């Protein structure tokens, strides 16, 4: 296929936390490259998922959810989200049908208007199975009155409804040019970071309250073994001594359960055996360490007030 016939470009998915961006990314790519939990703010790095649609290569930037930042980490995440939108060829704003035009959605629309970029913005109304058609039509009208979206889509990222139509439309909009990634590649994140994200997802699902945002996971070692398996060593950093006990659990049962769940998912993802070893370490100021931000694909400087 000659270069002139192919298209490739970047698509930024933006929206409030929990709007379904990671679920949509995974649906578009056909594999799990971004963690999906019921906790908000789980996507920290700008994970790029790569999908092929006919002669087009769609590179999705799954940005952190846009919300009102309070801490350095929050500010860095929001800066990464808007940075992803600025770098894209197309932006897709995802909102939840049953929540409608929230205060957060209003803030996002205001910021889009202030930025006045030439990047086209499409609207995707997600979770359409949760509302009646009349409410959907009214929401579509109100949103398009508020901002000049180039197109509006009704989807259910979880069930797949409308996602093929959205992907086909996106493929048509991309600029002509050569593919930017090998055709069989699904994400440009290093496997070490994907592995860390999988473990962090299991921790987030297992633990509750504020703790998931006070911890991070880093892959410290990755050893390819002669038998084809991989040994992966990871460190779970927590901010306080009390958090270490919560992560470990009684008799170490919590960290064992997390390790098993993460190992099974990694084995499924890699298609081979994995030996996963987790350590829990207390780093009181990890939220203020530039190295931790780099490991998450965020810019430490973006967290400045």
From TrEMBL:
GO molecular function, one term: GTP binding
Domain KH type-2: 207-284
TM ranges: none
G4 as annotated region, ranges: 126-129
Taxonomy, superkingdom: Bacteria
Membrane topology, record value: Peripheral membrane protein
Entry's localization field: Cytoplasm; Cell membrane
UniProt keyword GTP-binding present: yes
Residues forming coiled coils: none
G5, as annotated region: 155-157
Residues annotated as binding GTP: 15-22, 62-66, 126-129
Era-type G domain residues: 7-176
GO BP term, example: ribosomal small subunit assembly
Region (G1): 15-22
One GO cellular component, as annotated: cytosol
Family annotation (Gene3D superfamilies): 3.30.300.20, P-loop containing nucleotide triphosphate hydrolases
Subunit: Monomer.
Protein family: Belongs to the TRAFAC class TrmE-Era-EngA-EngB-Septin-like GTPase superfamily. Era GTPase family.
Function summary: An essential GTPase that binds both GDP and GTP, with rapid nucleotide exchange. Plays a role in 16S rRNA processing and 30S ribosomal subunit biogenesis and possibly also in cell cycle regulation and energy metabolism.
Name this protein carries in UniProt: GTPase Era
Organism expressing this protein natively: Yoonia litorea
Taxonomic lineage: Bacteria, Pseudomonadati, Pseudomonadota, Alphaproteobacteria, Rhodobacterales
